[in-house]
Prior knowledge:
By secondary structure, the chain is an alpha/beta fold. The protein is about 40% helix and about 15% strand.
Amino acid sequence: MAKKQIKEKSIEETLWESANKLRGSVEPSEYKHVVLSLIFLKYAYDRFTERRNELEAEGKGQFVDNPVFYNAKNVFYLEPESRWNFLIENAKQNDIAIKIDKALAKVEESNPSLKGALPSNYYAGLSLDRTKLAALLDEINKIDTLKDPEHDLMGRVYEYFLGKFAIAEGKGKGEYYTPKTIVNLIAEMIEPYRGKIYDPCCGSGGMFVQSMKFIEAHHGNKRDISVYGQEYTNTTYKLAKMNLAIRGIACNLGEMAADTFHNDQHKDLKADFIMANPPFNQKAWRAENELKDDPRWAGYDVPPTSNANYGWILNIVSKLSANGTAGFLLANGALSGDGTELEIRKQLLLNHLVEAIVILPRNMFYSTDISVTLWILNNNKKARTVEQNGKMVRYRNREDEVLFIDLRQWGEPFEKKYIQFSTEQIQQIAENFHNWQRVGYEETYHDEPEYCYSATLDEIEKKGWSLVPSKYIEFRNRDEQIDFDIKMRQLQTEMRDLLQQEDASKQELKALFEKLGYGL
């Protein structure tokens, strides 16, 4: 008799069961932080064990306790008390929470790249029931962290938990995970090959991770990029440092978790590339008498207290290097606000900073179903030739133009209710954008109804400095193209044919019953 095949659990299923062990003991907003640090310890141990076995197989057994031979391969060295097998062996001890805290502290102490990345005395402070914590360790022990060839487990875990608990955590906290498909589009459009990259609200560091993947995909050198970021929430700040350290990405996230507006950790930074997904429509981000003379608003009106959208825009503008480029997301309302927002938007356009405005489809985010806008800003839209990844690229002068792109009908479904761009679509969108930017665009770029339009500043001024794409992109009125008399005759013919088919079916059914001796 054949053995019954046991279906292997996915990481997502295991994580869901892990979270269930916490119900009633931990707030939903804490679930991911409790689980992530434990998964990190499991992941670090699996990599450590893998490297230890390699050293022994290579006949270098005498070096298995030398941290240098681990760090050289971007593997964290683990002291015995910080190894996962030690925690599993002691999972049912009354002091297991203290042992986990000590393990995390020891890992950080032994690996300088993790300084400030791991929680301190976190698990003991949770007062989790020992049996629940033991059950949680048991569930995470079932995860094979090395099955992920891209070592992107932490990103997957973070994405999963944001998706599952978005409703429980609430949508107003500003913690939006940026889907990889959108980050990939931004990277393909602004092309961060070399220089300093900055994210003023970096979350778990996803923008940086995807930027490095962009460089790898285009055969660039990751060492040509320096990473700068800032994050407000302390637990997320630590998660970002952990996430980047796992991948060997050196970063400067500031000395501490801090509010970008009130405690800028990178005051003198001039970045070549900026990628960001700020909190949408952030209210009361400053008091009426705060930040009025902030140098980041120099040359512009002071952003209104009622909404931080333009505060984020001007923070980004202030950080751009002379040839800097930015790609960031905002709620659609920022395209057409009046009053102070109108004056700032007008000045951005007159300063030739706005390169492209891209409307994205709805249902791309786990935590909100609204359609949002991707803004592309460029500090140098003049004609110039640039070396990019070994190639010379010739840009034309676009100072008095803005490209509008509408992608609301683009994308493909995934996970039932969400939308993502395919790799081919991202390449198509980016290629169209770059064709528009470059010399020879007359042959390679064309305005296309319901997709894209290159507008002049004169046209934008006539539209009241609005950046709403539908004011510029041509949309066909399909109703006007219908001849209703012809359409009605077609519908009448189709209805008549259906009725005739139905009558014929009834006659066939009647004849069949009569043959069987039944009358209808």
